[in-house]
Amino acid sequence: NAGVTQTPKFQVLKTGQSMTLQCAQDMNHEYMSWYRQDPGMGLRLIHYSVGAGITDQGEVPNGYNVSRSTTEDFPLRLLSAAPSQTSVYFCASSSGFPPYEQYFGPGTRLTVT
Amino acid sequence: GNSVTQMEGPVTLSEEAFLTINCTYTATGYPSLFWYVQYPGEGLQLLLKATKADDKGSNKGFEATYRKETTSFHLEKGSVQVSDSAVYFCALSDPGSSGSARQLTFGSGTQLTVLP
């Protein structure tokens, strides 16, 4: 049981490049989320999904796309990277039942130059 | 909307000292409350939780009590160890709501360093 896995662990992009951050979970969780972590700001919700085929925006969705074609996978796409997207990205999953506690992956550290 | 406010860090303590990290919240509904811990270079791990007023969550010697009257969920430990050095996040979810309110709203985190 691997829990929540994320790849890559580190990534450097140039401004304007695109990439996809991968996230997978093996707990059969309905809910999955993407957060970004910036110093002094805690974690902020980017996008989330409450099941396959269903996604919605969080607090800071601009510049990011998501899709959820399977229960297990929830990739995050950066369309045209900007230096403001330099951050640590965490994927999380939840059973979909109260109290909605979430289980986190190890994170992807992204630097945009 | 929902929000979480944590005491500013960093906090530096000597081993075996008493720890308190303050957390207060505002919520439109009846939230569930959590403390997460992040060790260097790792993701967040759930430390403890409480889902209703006066509930006490506890784990690994850490405790926090859900105080609805003061909208607080302060984290405490009687005797910290060097291995407790980490960043601690207070968070809430709002199970009675729909959509993003069921996701976690985080405080800004408190860096704890414990010196031997």
| Rg of chain A | 13 Å
Q: Termini of chain A, distance in Å? A: 36 Å
What is the mean pLDDT of chain A? 94
In total, the number of strands of chain B is: 12
Query: Largest beta sheet of chain A, briefly?
Result: 7 strands, mixed
Number of helices of chain B: 0
Give an overview of the whole structure.
The complex is a heterodimer of chains A (113) and B (116). With 113 residues, chain A is mainly beta. Helices cover 0% and strands 50% of the residues of chain A. Chain A contains no helices and eleven strands. In chain A, strands 2, 4, 5, 6, 9, 10 and 11 form a seven-stranded mixed beta sheet that branches. In chain A, strands 1-3-8-7 form a four-stranded antiparallel beta sheet, with no helix packed on it. The N and C termini of chain A lie far apart (36 Å). The model of chain A has no long low-confidence stretch (mean pLDDT 94). Chain B is mainly beta and 116 residues long. Chain B has no helices and twelve strands. Chain B has strands at 3-6, 11-14, 19-21, 23-26, 32-38, 44-50, 56-59, 62-65, 75-77, 86-93, 105-106, 110-115. In chain B, strands 2, 5, 6, 10, 11 and 12 form a six-stranded mixed beta sheet that branches. Chain B has a four-stranded antiparallel beta sheet with strand order 3-9-8-7, with no helix packed on it. A two-stranded antiparallel sheet of chain B has the order 1-4. Classes of the chains: A mainly beta (113), B mainly beta (116). The interface between A and B is medium-sized, with 27 and 23 residues.
